Structures are given as C-alpha cells and as structure tokens.
Amino acid sequence: MARSNATTVADYLAELPEDRRGVVAAVRELILAHLPDGYRETMNWGMICYEVPLERYPKTYNKQPLSYAALAAQKGYYSVYLNGIYPGTPGEGLLRKEFDEAGKRLNMGKCCVRFRSLDDLVLDAIGRAVASTPVDTFIADYEASRKGR
Fold first, then answer.
1. Who has the most CB within 10 Å: 23, 69, 71, 81?
2. How confident is the model at residue 2 (pLDDT cuts 50, 70, 90)?
C-alpha cells in the first residue's frame, strides 16, 4: 500500500495485512511515546502524520498543518518521515552515528528513514529524534526557512 484513503489511524491500521500492521503499530507507539506536547496525530497525505495543528500555527504556505513526522507502509518497505532532521543538520549526524554504532545501515533520504523490518531500525535513536524538537522550535525553524520567500 503506497497511499491510503483512510480518514482515521484505526482505519489505516485495519486495512494493513496483520504482519505489516504489527510493524506500523510498533513504530507508531514509539513515536507517540516520544512525541513532544503540542503535536497532533492525524491522517494526512495518505499516511499517519504528526502535525502542528492549524489552530496553533495557521500561517503555512499551503494552508495545511506543519508536518513534523509521519509513518507509512509503502509497497515494499515502511517509511518514517522525520521532518525536523535534514541532511547536514546535527540531528542527522547524530542519527547516522547511532545507526553506525549499532551496526545498522541508515537508509535515509532528505528526511525519510526507510526500513523493511523493525530490526532495521535503532528504535532508541528514532525515539530520540522524534523527541528532539519542541513545537515552538519547529515553528521557529520553519519560519526561518521561509524568510525571503
């Protein structure tokens, strides 16, 4: 499943095959356990999203909530989107270091960590990455990135 039309997280999980549901549910629980206050779990963009609600910060360029993190079951793998962790940032360096120290390969795009099983992840490192950015900091980083546009 690359994109879902589910409108709730429960519906999203229910439409996954049992083995894939277990992986997504485990990573979801990890994210929820580490998610800083102020973010909200929703369904958006066809995946489970963790966003800054529009009532908290409505001034986005696309009139959509700021997406902090997301979780999806793709066709042949899973994705955790850590939108506060970009290439060249200290957070990305720390994540790479923790994966290296655990002897695991980090399969990461700009902010997307791809994995085929829970064993591919360093769960503590993902939890720390999720916990690393309070809402006010994420908003300030977003505003700084939009200056001059």
1. 69
2. low
